[in-house]
Every structure is written in C-alpha cells, then in structure tokens.
Amino acid sequence: MTETDTTSGSASGQKARFELGTGPGRVLVWFYGVFTVAAASRSIVQMILAFGRAPLAYVLSAVAALVYGFITYSLVRGGEKARRTALVCCAAELAGVLLVGTWTLVEPSAFADATVWSYLGRDYLFIPVILPVTGMIWLRRAKNV
User: Fold this and answer.
1) Fewer Cβ atoms within 10 Å of its own Cβ: the N or the C terminal residue of the chain?
2) Rounded to an integer, what distance in angstroms lies between the CA atom of residue 110 and that of residue 130?
3) With helix as H, strand as E and coil as C, how does 58-86 read?
4) How much is the pTM?
C-alpha cells in the first residue's frame, strides 16, 4: 500500500501510511531487533560486571542499543513521521559507527574494551556499518512510494 492509496478504497480521501516494516523493511526490522537485543545485552552485562574497566565503551554500546531500538520501533510503526525520524537515527547511527570505528582503527588503545561499533563493527561481521546505509536506502525509497 502506498501513501497515495486510500485506506479502504472508499471515497474518504484519507491517505494510508506506507508500511516501512513490509517487504525489505521486514528484514531491516529483524536485523535492528536482533541488534537491539545484542547491544543491550552486551552493555548491561559489561556494565554490571566491569563498568570501571571501560565505562566509555560500555556506555557507547548502550547508546547503540537505544538507537537500534528506536529505529526498530519507527520501522514497525510506519508512516511519514516515523520514516523521517528513522532516517535521522540511521544517519546518526552511521556517524557513530564511522566515528567510533575510525577512532578504534587509528588509536586501538583508545578504548579499554570493544564496543558494538569498534573497528566498524568487525565483531558483528561489519553489519553495524552496513545496516544504517541499507536502512537509509530503504527509507529514502519509501518516501517515493
């Protein structure tokens, strides 16, 4: 269903929401959901067991989990406002991945422990750097539908 379709085919003239979590968006929802759980679990365990060892790294993993969770919610919610919000969050996520990833490549000793975004997401098969790019492509495409 596109934004130009009516909700029930009637003459009501109301525009239906484009469902961001359908088609390829469903795969994004799945990946973002899995990464929400992975980043949150990692950061919670690390903060409980050894927060003093690498607080910046563990807080960054928690921030990643929050960003992933918000993008997941936006994709599931759908609609133009959620699409725009998710697009901004994907751009912020990509900036974070590039910043932290580059920082860890240039100065490996900068963090006492790895984050989800360290080395551009190497510990997660580089999905943290691929996911926001894919998300932004999908969200930009969804605008034109």
Assistant:
1) C
2) 23
3) HHHHHHHHHHHHHHHHHHHHCCHHHHHHH
4) 0.81
